[in-house]
Amino acid sequence: MIQLKTLLNCIDNSGASIVECVNVLKKKRPATIGDRIVVVVQKQRSAGSEATTAAALASKVRRGDIRHAVVVRVKKELQRPDGSLVRFGDNACVLVNKSGDPIGTRMNGVVGQELRNKKWSKILSLAPIHV
Amino acid sequence: MAALPAMRPLGCLRSLSLSNPSSTVDSFSTAYSKRPERVPLPPNMPEQFLSQIPLRFRPDPDREPLKIYPAPPSARKACKDPVGAITESQLAVLDPTGERKAMFDYRRNPRSVKTGDIVRVTFKNGDPFNGIVMSIKLRGIETSFLMRNELTRVAVEMSVKVFSPNVNSVEIVQRSEKKRRRARLYFLRDKKHDRRSVENIVASYVRQKKAFLGGGNRRR
Amino acid sequence: MSPRLGGLLQLSPVWGAPLITPRIPVRSFGIRSLNPPKPSRFNIGPGLPVLESTSTAALRRKANSLPLRTGAIGIKKGMTAIYDPESGKRIPCTVLQLDRVEVISHKTRERHGYYAVQVGAGWKHPNNVPKSMLGHFSVNGVSPKRHIFEFRVKDEAGLIPVGQSIEAGWFQEGQFVDARSNTKGKGFAGVMKRHGFGGQDRSHGVSLTHRSMGSSGPGQGGGSRVYPGKKMAGNMGNTQNTVQNLKILKVDSENGIVVVSGAVSGPKGCVVRIQDAIKKPWPEVPQAEATEPATA
């Protein structure tokens, strides 16, 4: 149930940490796993112990950037064809460029299996686990 | 009876003086009384009398009584609970031994899966899922159970239909330490009660099981 | 004024008449064609094309959308799910039961103007059946039925003999049907529930009309009237609804059970009419099966 103003975690190493949904693409309903959305980067990922300048250099996006993203986890339960339901603890997404390739090179966190049916195999291969 | 105006208020007492039980008391009866038999028309009635009777009461020697045909055998009587019959036929295919039904029938089977247990579910296609059982819903063919786990620090809940052909097996990894007082452990979602990840417990169980099975293979 | 006077004079040749009964002009309302169609006396005949507004033309137009064979009356018994063993897919389904479904009579082109099969289901105590209906059942040699419906068919080939019972095996697993039934009655419902209106504000000066429909139309510019068909509050539900293209998942002839995919309108126990789907190819009925019950 990702719609206008929803805040999502960004789980790739593109540099964004929290993004806000501003549009759901190709759909009149709230987005779910595997849907493409437009987001605004709200918070950049701070590198912690490393110097902030280095982190800023490493990050590919900045605060206020408008980017495309793919939803990979949702709190709203999803029903699978065999009747089982899956529900995650948070809403999360991965930033992609206009052609649909992920901006980050690594991902940390579990993603939903529905990405396979929606032809996001590149994201699936980056993810450590999929459920 | 013309009464004096001063006597008029006492007029209400007049009925007492007039009371005659046999004529004023009306009696009604609800007792069953037989329907009176129809009196047949006198034979050889002249034509002028017959023509005065409504058409439907006039005697008609040619008219036969309506023949009422008996109903064929009823499917409704043969099968009172069609939804149950469909469920039974489904269960006979999906769970011929009744093993799965017993495994989750926590009301009757003491050895069944119970809420609070840690289970491991393997699927025909896809990775196994481990988790602590939060609730079991007994709904015939729709019987399902809800598991909760934490993967990469993200809570994941999965509800699985017990009789789904996609489910390969369900193993109980660990029983809950103490008796649960609730049927549904939705409070596990609260931060205070969250059990976090059960991956370590399941991993050690899988290691033990592998070692055990491996030993068995060597003996053979 | 002068022409009207002249007309009046012309129309009343008898001088005494207008004095006794004053002439009241007949007013006509509504829209009238300026040049109404004039049927020609000579445009009728066997060799000429069929006129569009005749029953023959109507039947010809409907020929492609009328099923070849009759349907059946079922009772909705509830919903459950069926698993596809190969793909592991779960399909929600509705369970219908056919109870003593029999053909009562036929409607024919010659007598009634169209072809249809009158089908009855269930059983009703003869004491509770009107005499006219009892006579109808008696003449056709069937027991008194609780539910009676007609199923239109394309031509006389679809008129199966009177008295033949329609079992669950009439439908084949895998074929598609249309299910027609009455929806659940919701009683007198407001516009928000019935038509999905937005309602009005909770506050901002709105008082007591938070769920009402607001205006029912324009004022002087729109004719100062409410247009026909204006969506308003009223009775909702308990209207006929057809769900098209439901797949038959399972058939149990012994118990009269037909399982169709998806949902069917109405509560449990409601009467559902199922007939071959008009938007799918007609099911291939084996010839032997089709002719065998006819002879029996």
Structure description:
With about 130 residues, chain A is mostly beta strands. Chain A has helices at about 50-60, 115, 120-125, and strands at about 5-10, 15-25, 35-45, 65-75, 80, 85-90, 90-95, 110, 130. Chain A has a single domain (about 5-130), classed as Ribosomal protein L14/L23 (Ribosomal Protein L14, Beta Barrel), CATH 2.40.150.20. Chain A has a five-stranded mixed beta barrel. In chain A, strands 5-6 form a two-stranded antiparallel sheet. Chain A has a two-stranded parallel ribbon with strand order 8-9. Chain B is elongated. Chain B is an alpha+beta fold and about 220 residues long. Helices cover about 25% and strands about 20% of the residues of chain B. Chain C is an alpha+beta fold and about 300 residues long. Classes of the chains: A mainly beta (about 130), B alpha+beta (about 220), C alpha+beta (about 300). Chains in contact: A-B, A-C, B-C. At the B-C interface, helix 4 and helix 5 of B face strand 1, strand 2 and helix 4 of C. Strand 6 of chain A pairs antiparallel with strand 4 of chain B, so a sheet runs across the interface. Chain C: Pfam families: Ribosomal_L3 (PF00297). Chain C: One of its GO terms (cellular component) is mitochondrial large ribosomal subunit. Chain C: It is found in: Mitochondrion.
How would you briefly describe this protein structure?
By secondary structure, chain B is α+β, with helices and mostly antiparallel strands.
Question: Architecture of the domain at 93-210 in chain B, CATH level 2?
Answer: Roll
Distance, first to last CA of chain C: 82 Å
N-to-C order of helices and strands of chain B: HHHHHHEEEEEH
Strand content of chain C: 25-35%
How far apart lie the N and C ends of chain B?
A: 124 Å
Tell me the radius of gyration of chain B. 41 Å
Helical content of chain B, roughly? 25-40%
| Major β-sheet strand ordering of chain B | 4-3-2-1-5
| Number of helical stretches of at least 4 residues of chain B | 7
Integer average pLDDT of chain C:
87
Strand order of the largest sheet of chain C: 1-2-10-9-6-11
Structural class of chain C: alpha+beta
Largest chain-chain contact?
A: B-C, 32 and 39 residues
Please report the first level of CATH classification, the CATH class of the domain at 93-210 in chain B: Mainly Beta
Global geometry of chain C: extended
CATH topology of the domain at 93-210 in chain B: SH3 type barrels
The H-and-E topology of chain C, N to C, reads as HHHEEEEHEEEHEEEEH
- According to CATH, what is the class of the domain at 67-185 and 236-295 in chain C? Mainly Beta
What CATH calls the topology of the domain at 67-185 and 236-295 in chain C is Elongation Factor Tu (Ef-tu), domain 3
